[in-house]
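Risk register update: the risk of archive-format incompatibility is retired. Evidence:
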Amino acid sequence: MSYFDAKHQTIINNFNSKWEGLNTIESLAKQYEINDIAQDNNLKLLQTLVYFDLQNQSGREGSDAIDRYGNDWELKTANADLVSGFSTNHHTNHERIAQFRKERWLFSIYSGIELKEVYAMSPKTLEPYFTDWTNKVNDKSAAGMDNPHINNPKIPIKFVCTNGIKVYPVNTTNPIDPAEVLKTL
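Archived output:
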């Protein structure tokens, strides 16, 4: 194939026809205050917001989303083809851990771009991780670190699958609404 020959133009035209569908999705995304679906995992964020009736926290300071009851949600995604755990926060410090302890959590597991499973978890279920992270930040503080934090601690996919409430794929005869299940902590 040479640049812009007939074969290359066919590939470009095929790509462009598929790309047009993204414009429709981008229009929907703007209703959820997502201005660029190709940036920062926003397409997966949009999918989660739509599927679970959540509202985006644009600006992403603190919680990722809010449910219809006003509860804060932390949304995490992982491509199980590439990683074994969910990333959390690049500068996990005492303040961020305190926020994590107040949020409900949704963990979306992907294979590539295909959503496979989603689990809801209460912060109480994640407390062993929060305690461990707190101890690590305390150790760094005791060692004299300025702005003590840990870099992006992970929550294993296996832990989530074992301890979470599976909410996707949706059981059509008995759907589990994460906002309802975790309405009170």
